[in-house]
Design goal:
Chain lengths: 468, 468
């Protein structure tokens, strides 16, 4: 009854080497979060479907993994009541009846739920990070998985732009620590609102943004064509053209936009939201300048990321030396907790894409060479007596923080040596009767070939040799 | 449309304080595993149900959380074909049709699946640890959750008792590091087989063990009664009585059992398995003595733990100063991977119960006082200019490993002070125009009240004050 083992498509096993690399990424990110005073929380893998449904749009609802009610989920179900006509059933309704829980789809909605549920216990501003897997029933493809980790960091309960600055600083520190050169792109949702306002189509902000986003790829004439298809008039398109034609550096662009938002565009319309967005943008860029980030920061008016969700700053991080989508992104939201009954609570957060960061580090060969899951020393096993002889030596080394393994079987030395080599264990210690009789221990550095003999009680000297 | 937020019963949110404590436990365990050369792996939360079903008994199958197939799970289902009679449906078969995946129930079966699936890439003996949540649709109650973490450490591909020794040593080191006094109880499955052999009921090993296990609670007469109810003859019970009446220390007990297993019991029956078990037991206790564990180790003939699974050593760890079930346990298994097509692969492993260890540490007040999720310094926010003034100071401290927060809003100082106090932040730094003008920074130790002023550029002196 042997089965050929496999795992569900879109999921992954992580090997020791992959875990060492992933932990390196998570530890680096975590240590930066910690130096900024962010605290870790965890939420359950399963949430009530009522918490999850309707938060990610219709498409998201379809991608939720649903969990059958425990016990006998189908017992007592009146199938006839779900029959629509003939052999057709209302399977959506049936599914809701038999599955009341789902796997979390992201870390944002559970965070909002957490904040509302525990608001009495929290100190605001509440600064948390969360590193956990999420699940989406997306069609698996290269680089897209059905189970993947998110690393989210959010501060909620303050609208201060100092928090945006912190996020920008954390981005800078994380990627500097990882050795990845990045560009931090920043936009503000209120500017996008402003574009809709002054072109006279405040309800077409999404259409405008989607079109603008393609500027680099398809060019201005095609973008204008797309806006026309999306229902914008030629007059409105003329206003957008004025925005897209803005020249100069950050200060000049802001100045020109201020003119446009103040009624200076061809439409003559004014946008308070746009002006407020400019104010925020200037303040944030001022703070960033005062802080002195090492990575380049750029205003990108086409940046939208989950438009209907963000209300202020929008962030996105691109790797400069590796072609891949954004490796980090986020923004300011003003009403995330409203759906759970806590309105008017502003927050800002970003999410680091661990899988893509992994791919970038691997592609650029930037993982530290010292990353290893192997112990420092393998004690060879010559026979039962000599293995017993090294037990306390191995123990003493471990007590001093050296990771050590005793090969469990008295196999041929060639086999034990091969094991050390395959695992990349740097030191081999071979000891037999002679060493036991003289209370000595041998160590060989397998890369340099250097070999030394020590008194079994001289742990300090052994440590010095192993750490050199 | 606000909902009152909640989470599924039997699941938990972990707050920053709980996370700090849990990470302390996991980090301690992990660092011990690492010094013994064990490597971390992770497997997906979802496994194919074909991997999970039938591995945990009928009861276990019922406790699996099943995941509805993605897309429209119920589309095209012919409900009539599941009708048994009248309104009764074969919901087990229906459930299998609409749910092909389940959440992992433990880390052992996924580990066996992993080893078989990846055997071409692994070096044997393969020593792995795994710290991940598991899910069981058990009825939630105090201390029993539907989502909980397991910390498993296993070595597979060798039958050497040096591996049992390693596990015993790791138990000793983990609990010594955590400051929990424990008793390590050891048994061997082959002795239990031997009991069945010499009492003439080799197929009643489970019944015998279940009864013996109650000796402490119900006394010998009741145990004998139970064995009779379970079908043992009076002659067989007499043999068990001989075993349970064994006196003396470890060596004497082993000697007496050797006599019994060699045909010296009232039945005159002999057990090769029992004799082999004694040999293993003696060797393991000899190794443990050579190693010199700091915790007491005891032979416990009633210890069984998942009897049909273990084939050699069986381990269980009890906290000595706190009344709670076992906090760690495991044993040797010889055919775990057989079900997935890789027979004759011996392994041994133990699992640390993180939730119970948490309860013990909390109950004994043994969590380190220094465990905190709070940053070291809070920079108060007097106004925009003074906040901007401390940005680079906070940045310099963070670069030197000090965690620092700038309060995001220029709120009343009382509010900022309260925030520092509630979060347990040890140092407060209040700086206004005067400090900015003189390029100085103030720090106050909130517990001692000591206050010092430093040049904003003298990071070394600031560090010395904050670390003192």
């Amino acid at each position: 009854m042997a089965q050929k083992p496999s795992i569900p498509k879109g999921t992954r096993d992580f090997s020791p080497v992959e875990m060492a690399r992933r932990n390196y990424i998570f530890d680096t990110i975590r240590s930066v979060f910690t130096t900024y005073g962010y605290s870790q929380i965890e939420t359950p893998a399963m949430e009530n479907l009522s918490t999850l449904l309707g938060k990610y749009g219709d498409e998201g609802d379809k991608l939720l993994f649903r969990i059958l009610n425990s016990g006998d989920a189908f017992s007592g179900i009146d199938y006839e009541s779900f029959r629509i006509e003939g052999d057709s059933f209302n399977s959506k309704a049936l599914s809701l009846q038999v599955a009341e829980k789902g796997l979390r789809y992201d870390l944002t909605v559970p965070f909002a739920r957490y904040v509302v549920q525990h608001r009495g216990e929290l100190s605001f501003p509440f600064k948390r990070y969360q590193i956990q897997p999420v699940w989406r029933a997306d069609r698996p493809q290269k680089g897209r998985y059905r189970e993947f980790y998110q690393c989210d960091v959010d501060a909620i309960g303050s609208s201060s732009l100092l928090l945006e600055l912190e996020l920008a600083e954390m981005v800078d520190r994380v990627f500097a620590a990882l050795g990845i050169r990045v560009l931090l792109k920043i936009n503000n949702r209120k500017l996008l609102t402003g574009f809709g306002d002054i072109c006279g189509f405040p309800d077409k902000v999404t259409d405008i943004t989607v079109a603008i986003d393609k500027l680099d790829k398809i060019g201005l004439p095609a973008v204008e064509e797309e806006m026309a298809e999306r229902g914008l008039t030629q007059e409105a398109i003329a206003v957008i053209r004025e925005i897209l034609s803005l020249q100069g550096g950050f200060a000049e662009k802001v100045q020109s936009m201020r003119t446009l938002f103040s009624g200076g565009s061809s439409s003559g319309l004014r946008s308070e939201a746009g002006l407020k967005g400019l104010e925020e943008l200037e303040e944030l860029f001022g703070l960033i300048e005062a802080s002195g980030l090492s990575c380049p920061v750029e205003l990108d008016l086409s940046l939208a990321r989950g438009l209907n969700y963000y209300t202020g700053a929008i962030f996105e991080v691109k790797a400069l030396d590796f072609a891949i989508g954004s490796i980090c992104g986020g923004g300011r939201y003003d009403n995330l907790t409203g759906i759970f009954g806590l309105p008017d609570t502003s927050g800002v957060g970003i999410s680091f894409g661990a899988d893509r960061i992994y791919d970038v580090l691997l592609g650029l060969d930037k993982f530290p060479e010292t990353l290893s899951d192997a112990p420092t020393v393998l004690f060879a096993n010559m026979d039962a007596a000599s293995a017993r002889y090294v037990i306390p030596v191995a123990g003493a080394l471990r007590s001093r923080g050296i990771s050590a393994e005793i090969y469990p079987d008295s196999s041929k030395l060639k086999k034990q040596f091969d094991y050390a080599e395959r695992r990349g264990i740097p030191f081999l210690s071979i000891n037999g009767e002679t060493e036991a009789a003289s209370r000595t221990v041998n160590f060989k550095n397998l890369s340099s070939g250097e070999q030394r003999s020590f008194s079994a009680d001289d742990i300090d000297s052994i440590l010095a040799f192993l750490r050199a």
